[in-house]
């Protein structure tokens, strides 16, 4: 299957890492239309180019704290058609929740070590550009198991596994393949999650997104 040729704006203040990522993306058929070393530069380039996806380091100058995540949240608010994939050296559950507060479509959060795994990084990039969700498995695990006292605690171990994979952006078919079960079995687990989270069917039926947001809000801080 031919990969979609994505237009990307990349924000990373390390020149070495930035150049390496540009080389990787270009080799995989993406077009890096602009790069930025600061959050303000990122916002300018996104507004100018309106890429398919912005790839953003959470820690950016001048303070190297949350400039990147604040810029990502702003992009989601002002240019919702642009996918946002952020990456970080460490798991920051509060920032993941902050990024997803406006909805879990066209957004991703990866650890930098995952970015180094080219196939996983590219899969996440395309998923986000297509309006999906791509959350690092370690981030999802921390969010789900981080704190108790929530509706997440009512889930069985298998239902948690299914929810974690849903949060990473996998379809029922993909979840079934990963867990080596039937797609019908996955549908039953997903239905159980919806029931326990009190998510009735709606006309738009975006319960998958709501299920992800439920446990992020209850366990992500």
From TrEMBL:
Domain HTH luxR-type per the UniProt entry, residue ranges: 148-208
Keyword Transcription belongs to the record: yes
InterPro entries from the UniProt entry: CheY-like_superfamily, NreC/VraR/RcsB-like_REC, Sig_transdc_resp-reg_receiver, Tscrpt_reg_LuxR_C, WalR-like, WH-like_DNA-bd_sf
Superkingdom field: Bacteria
Family annotation (Pfam families): GerE, Response_reg
Stored CDD domains: LuxR_C_like, REC_NarL-like
This protein's UniProt keywords: DNA-binding, Phosphoprotein, Transcription, Transcription regulation
Name of the protein described by the UniProt record: Response regulator
